[in-house]
Write a structure and sequence with these properties.
442 residues, mainly alpha, 3-stranded antiparallel sheet, 62% helix, globular
């Protein structure tokens, strides 16, 4: 793996660190070799040994098989995709509505194109299909982690792998256990961000595919716009439109347009409505609704959650306040990105964007926090000597407390209080502090 370092203002720093006798660079350039060429310094990073690569691959494969075996006997969200695609194929179920999947609340909530991505799995029994689905998701996450680790560069720091394991590991497990499509969407979105410098069209294709399955990757288009990635934004919008129109080949132009309108109405009513849905959202909106309104759990699938409201404001007022706060938070993210992206360590502003997504979107279910894998990996690289590291350690403590405390009543209470929301907010604060820290502190 090689990177060419052009003669810039950073060259003086490299020159001072370079050991002309051994060709090695200590400190943060540990494990790198520098060679002088006509184009400037050429930095060569050694790869893992063959034995370590084989060991890592075998461990990852073993874990993937284990998760696939577990999910095969307990398919949850994947069953909705399976039955939805199967029902459309044999015309036994409607595309949308309470009977489109397994009955309310487990009904189909994706654009029509996702039906055709799920259809090949209907050729297998549900247990085998869910196992293959989970194995493929494990593979996608493994490839993403490997690519991101290489992009961040070599390190001997224990925190670089321990912090992601402790902070994001529980959410990755939750995503795999539920069998939701969130892991794939995150992998596509993260891959698009990784591909930006080298393959902008491929990055746009990955982001467009993610948007055509779930709405939330649209969140990154203004983020890319303030980074002046206009070609990527334009190509993403064009490719997304093409992907959403592709089901017209099966349903017809009018039929596909009708289904897209039904899906849009369903998403608008779900995402922007004034009432809570059936899970304990870990977003700002969810926490505000639980603390500031009286949530009637008796009408929800699980009526056993405790009521913790400290006020009884009407839901429409809380919703308006959430929209205002979310808008301010997102504008703050865009401002930080526009002013600080080029001068910060790779991945920091993207990490803040992923934490902001979790906090600001209408609903954040526990498995959707798999997107914190990117922020956790970046945090592991910048925690050393960081004055705000206490915020990160507090976030890890909140994340680990939940699987360690047993009992359904305690688990429900922690979800209602918003332990995951608090952990994400602390992580976001740590990332903001890291972005504004001086270079010596980073």
């Amino acid at each position: 793996m090689q990177h060419v370092l052009r003669p810039t203002r950073k060259r003086a720093v490299i020159d001072r660190a370079y050991n002309s006798r051994t060709g090695e660079v200590p400190g943060r350039w540990l494990a790198c070799q520098l060679q002088m060429t006509n184009d400037g310094w050429r930095m060569t990073m050694p790869h893992l040994s063959r034995q370590r690569r084989i060991t890592l691959t075998l461990v990852a494969t073993f874990l993937a098989v284990g998760f696939a075996w577990y999910v095969s006997s307990r398919p949850m969200d994947f069953r909705v995709y399976y039955h939805g695609a199967e029902g459309v194929l044999n015309e036994s179920r409607p595309v949308y509505g309470n009977y489109s999947g397994m009955g309310w609340p487990m009904h189909y909530r994706y654009p029509p194109i996702f039906l055709f991505l799920a259809m090949p799995f209907t050729l297998l029994l549900l247990s085998w299909a869910s196992a293959v689905w989970t194995f493929l998701k494990c593979g996608a996450l493994f490839l993403l982690i490997r690519a991101f680790w290489r992009r961040l560069g070599p390190t001997n720091s224990t925190a670089a792998w321990l912090i992601p394991f402790l902070l994001a590991g529980p959410y990755v497990v939750e995503d795999l256990r539920y069998g939701n499509a969130q892991g794939f969407i995150f992998a596509l979105t993260a891959a698009a961000l990784l591909l930006l410098p080298r393959a902008r069209l491929l990055a746009a294709a990955a982001l467009a595919l993610a948007i055509s399955i779930k709405v939330w990757p649209l969140y990154f288009l203004p983020y890319l716009a303030v980074r002046r990635e206009w070609k990527v934004v334009g190509a993403t919008l064009a490719l997304t439109a093409i992907l959403l129109l592709l089901p017209s080949l099966y349903f017809g132009v009018g039929g596909n347009a009708y289904l897209l309108s039904r899906w849009t109405q369903q998403e608008i009513s779900t995402q922007t409505g004034q009432t809570e849905i059936w899970f304990q959202s870990q977003s700002l909106r969810g926490v505000m609704m639980r603390y500031l309104t009286l949530v009637d759990y008796s009408v929800l699938p699980d009526p056993n959650y405790p009521v913790i409201n400290i006020a009884s404001v009407t839901p429409d007022k809380v919703r308006a306040l959430w929209i205002a706060l979310a808008g301010i938070g997102y504008l703050g993210l865009l401002l930080i990105t526009a002013r600080r992206h080029s001068s910060t360590k790779f991945g920091l502003t993207e990490a803040l964007a992923f934490t902001g997504l979790t906090l600001l979107q209408p609903f954040s279910q526990k498995y959707s926090l798999v997107v914190l894998l990117w922020p956790a990996m970046v945090a592991g690289r910048v925690v050393g000597g960081n004055r705000a590291r206490g915020l990160l350690y507090a976030a890890i403590a909140l994340t680990l407390a939940q699987p360690l405390i047993s009992g359904s009543a305690a688990q429900r209470l922690m979800q209602v209080i918003g332990f995951d929301f608090l952990a994400t907010a602390l992580l976001a604060a740590f990332l903001v502090a890291s972005i504004f820290a001086s270079p010596t502190e980073r």
